[in-house]
Write a structure and sequence with these properties.
This protein is α+β, with helices and mostly antiparallel strands. The protein has 3 helices and 3 strands; from the N terminus they run ααββαβ.
């Protein structure tokens, strides 16, 4: 259940960072793994990110949002959220641009 909440929270965070729903629709659903114990949880997330974007800032925002949302909905203390970016998904029209 905690993993599902984390996935949903990551999707919500990414939706706020994409400027169009078309870009968000191209992203595969994130995957989450969770380790729990003594009222705490450690989350591992694998996800795709839109490109171009500031990956460091976006990653921090996703980690923070997921941590806060999961803590709020589960009552658990989130001790760690790690992200692995599996793939960068180009924004609409990016494929047509070429460097010459």
């Amino acid at each position: 259940m905690v993993a599902r909440i984390a996935v949903r929270a990551a999707q919500e965070a990414l939706a706020t960072q994409t400027d169009t729903s078309a870009v968000h629709a191209k992203l595969a659903a994130p995957h989450a793994s969770v380790r729990t114990g003594s009222g705490t949880a450690r989350l591992g997330m694998t996800l795709e990110m839109p490109y171009p974007m500031d990956l460091a800032t976006s990653s921090r925002q996703v980690r923070q949002y997921v941590s806060e949302r999961v803590a709020h909905l589960t009552g658990m203390r989130i001790t760690e959220v790690t992200l692995a970016i599996e793939r960068l998904v180009p924004a609409e029209g990016l494929k047509q641009r070429r460097v010459e």
